[in-house]
Amino acid sequence: MKKIIVACNSGLGTSLMIRLNVEALLKEWGLKAWVEHTDISSVDTFDADLIIGSNYVMESLQLAKDVEVIGLDDITDRQYLKSRLLGSETFKQWLAM
Which intervals hold domain PTS EIIB type-2 (predicted)? Predict the structure, then answer.
């Protein structure tokens, strides 16, 4: 199962909003993935394929493993999120399957 983690400082509002947009895009593309939102300090507890969050938060993330991270300059614009996901190597692989 594909796993996406959406993170923000508190793991509440921002990450939930981005998560809802990610889930809507996945549905639009017919992709199935497990999507969870969390606070930045809990990101390492998930075995994610892709991590998404605001650029500010993603720049402070220290990951031990090789996982693609998408930092967003605009966290409210779904079209911007869509373009960032379509440019992601992880998403390109998923869409090619």
Answer: 2-93
Gap between the Cα atoms of 96 and 43, Å rounded: 27
| Centroid of chain to Cα 86 | 12
Position 64 confidence tier, pLDDT thresholds 50, 70, 90: low
Sign of CA dihedral 45, 50, 54, 56: positive
> Mean pLDDT across the stretch 57-74?
86
d(Cα 97, Cα 82) in Å, to the nearest integer? 18
Query: C-alpha angle 47/51/78, rounded to 5°?
Result: 140
Amino acid at the residue 38? T
Is residue 4 pLDDT above 90, yes or no?
yes
Q: Find out whether 54 and 72 touch, Cβ atoms under 8 Å.
A: yes
